[in-house]
Every structure is written in structure tokens, then in C-alpha cells.
Amino acid sequence: MSDDLTSGRLAAASLAERTGVGSHRAVVVLGSGWDIAAECMGRLVAELPVTDLPGFRATVAPGHRGVVRSYDLDGDPVLVFLGRTHLYEGHGPGPVAHPVRVAAAAGAQLAVLTNASGSLRPDWAPGTGAVLTDHVNWTGVSPLTGPRFVDLTDAWSPGLRAAALDADPTLVPAVYAQMTGPAIQTGAETRMLRTVGADLVGMSTVMEAIAARAAGLELLGLSAVTTVEDSGVELDAEDVVAVATRTASRLGPVVRTVLRHWLARTPERTPS
Q1: Which of 39, 105, 184, 263 could cysteine-pair with 8, CB 3.0–4.6 Å?
Q2: Domain boundaries, the chain
Q3: What tens digit of pLDDT does each residue of 48-62 get?
Q4: Distance (Å) of CA 81 to CA 23, 26, 192
């Protein structure tokens, strides 16, 4: 068994012991400014710092609390990470993908990944909510090693995307590009990303998405547009979090609606 899968199973066992919840059916990763969406996840059962579990790093980015919660959503256990580790922290893709691997080992079959992003389209203003249709991995790395061939052609579930659009028709379908960060891309790089078909750019999500699909999880991605790239406006980290929070307060109910829809139609499985 690979080291990453072993680490995921060890952390999942510790999670079950610390929360008193033997398994979780879905996982939600809340990015910058998205903490407010946790209020829609149901009844809080347990909370602990992620660093209390094996394999996790302390979160350092603004708007990332670094805690994991177990919720009861209408009788179904849902795991929620408030914050994530990023590639630019220098730990490699393994710790970035660790939360979804732990969730998969804990029984999750669905991952909802959220983030704050920069718009590559001038007509998508800050405050726009987006649902991911596809992604571009511009980091040059992957959470997978060896001959582990994972088909990402339809990585982002069309069915979950349709459910999100039903819940909020104002969502815009978008292709998300991940850059390594922490430097913001140049104007030329922004124009390059537009050319290759990206609508949004950020520094997260794709490593987790690849690991989730490798573990067989269905994927939904939601993004809060916080800036318009190459617009002459300098990025302000505090403003990014504030805009993301306002947008996430509107999109939190979308996450809850999709979770309820999915949980109602999907049989529970035993954790691996």
C-alpha cells in the first residue's frame, strides 16, 4: 500500500476515535472566506484542529482556520474542513491532497471543493458564483505517483453540477486553472490562461480534485470570484476573504441542497 493511502487510513482511524463518528458519507473543503458556509451543514457533532490528526499541516493562508468538523445533516454524517494546505507552502502535493484521502478512507463518496478565485473574464465581477466544469493543472506536479492512471475527462460530475445550477441558476459554469503561487500571475500569464480556455484562476483545488477522483469520489466544485485579473487593481488578501465570505453566504445553501440531493439517492458504503 502506498504511503499516502496508509497515512490517510491512519488519520481516518484517529478521526473516528476523536469525533465518535465511525464514517462520513461526504466531505466539504471550505476555502478562503468560505467558513460561513459551514452554518448550512447541519448539526455540529465534533470539532478539532486538523493538526490533531496524523499527516496534517497547520494552515497558514488568510481565511483558513485549520479545523475539521463532523456534522449530522438530516441523519447523515458529513465531514467539513475549514481551510486547506496549499502548494506554495512548500510541503509538496501530498499534504495538499491529504484531507480528501482521509475523507475517502473514512467512507466519503462525494467531495465538494470550494475556493476563492480570480476571474479571467472581465464580465464576471467580484461576487460572482461559479460551478466548475473542468480544470487546468498549471502547477507541473500531481498528487499521484507511479503508474496510477486516473481518467480526468469528466472529473467534475455533470449531475452534481446540474443540481447546483438548479439550486442557484445565477451560477456561471467555469473552467478553473491552478497556478502554484504565491506570486500572482503576470498579465501575459493571465492572457495565456484565457487562450487555453480557463475562466478562473487560483492556487488550490486541483490537487485535491485529482486525489479525489483517484479514490473514486464524485466531485462538485464551487468558486467565489473575488478579483478580476489583469484589471490594474492590486490584490488585497483581506478584501479577497471579505468578498469570498459575502459570496459564500449565498452559496452555502447550494452546498446543503446538493448534499441532501446526493445523500438521498446514493447508497451508503463501508469505509475502505
Answers
A1: 105
A2: 3-265
A3: 999 999 999 999 988
A4: 15, 11, 32
Q: Are strands 200-202 and 110-119 parallel, antiparallel or unpaired?
A: antiparallel
Dihedral sign from CA coordinates of 181, 147, 98, 220: positive
User: What single-letter DSSP state applies at residue 35?
Assistant: G
What is the rounded distance in angstroms from the CA atom of residue 95 to the CA atom of residue 90?
10
Under DSSP, is residue 66 helix (H, G, I), strand (E, B) or coil? coil
Q: Cα separation of 151 and 145, whole Å?
A: 15
153: how many CB neighbours lie within 10 A of its CB?
Answer: 5
Q: Are 38 and 64 a contacting pair, CB within 8 Å?
A: no
186-203 tens-digit pLDDT = 999 999 999 999 999 999
Domain 3-265 has CATH 2.60.120.20: no
pTM recorded for the entire structure: 0.95
Q: Which residues contact 236 (CB under 8 A, 6 or more apart)?
A: none
Q: How far apart are the first and last CA of the chain?
A: 13
C-alpha cell belonging to residue 173: 459554469
**Which neighbouring-strand residues pair with 120?**
none
Cβ atoms of residues 107 and 215 within 8 Å: no
